[in-house]
Amino acid sequence: NAGVTQTPKFQVLKTGQSMTLQCAQDMNHEYMSWYRQDPGMGLRLIHYSVGAGITDQGEVPNGYNVSRSTTEDFPLRLLSAAPSQTSVYFCASSYPSGGYTFGSGTRLTVV
Amino acid sequence: AQKVTQAQTEISVVEKEDVTLDCVYETRDTTYYLFWYKQPPSGELVFLIRRNSFDEQNEISGRYSWNFQKSTSSFNFTITASQVVDSAVYFCALSEGNAGNMLTFGGGTRLMVKP
Hints:
Shape of chain A: globular
Shape of chain B: globular
Structural class of chain A: mainly beta
Number of strands of chain A: 11
Largest sheet of chain B: 6 strands, mixed
Oligomer: heterodimer
Radius of gyration of chain B: 14 Å
Strand content of chain B: over 45%
Strand content of chain A: over 45%
Low-confidence stretches of chain A: none
Low-confidence stretches of chain B: none
Largest interface: A-B, 26 and 25 residues
Radius of gyration of chain A: 13 Å
Helix content of chain B: under 10%
Number of strands of chain B: 12
Order of helices and strands of chain B: EEEEEEEEEEEE
Structural class of chain B: mainly beta
Largest sheet of chain A: 7 strands, mixed
Order of helices and strands of chain A: EEEEEEEEEEE
Number of helices of chain B: 0
Helix content of chain A: under 10%
Mean pLDDT of chain A: 93
Distance between the termini of chain A: 34 Å
């Protein structure tokens, strides 16, 4: 089915480890973004991209890197995992001014 | 900066009751978009509605209805004759016209519908 695919669905990391959360969409959407969801705080924007080769920071970018080499892919890199990065991560894509399609989420625990 | 407030953190109703979820937003833009998403216990985010700032018409979709009032900066969501399957966390979100379509979310309202 067309949509946004996130991998992995679950991940446990040790403090200081690095990893990449993968996100791919097959709807040819220009816009992609990463959000984190913490209890009682809704979703907060980490990084976003309005097209291939263009990225920008959101509300909570520290500790994360992104790149957008293709329209389809928008990976999120954790450089040195910290317990404060324990969260559920959602990737989303959309056309300009369209409603977002979200992936199913990645539940990350940093111990 | 934009902000979305969902003052009700948790609501509990009995099946078949009507329930309204409140959403108040702040923005300096004249062009913006408002959204509601549903997050059931399974965790995915389900898109419910998108409304632009120039369209204040209320919307009805089955048992769901939305009331958009620019005068009070509110975009409330009503479920009529609630059902157990409506139990979920509901998020209101705002996207400003020139913000690359990025969403600012409220904190969410957890709705529990009891049989």
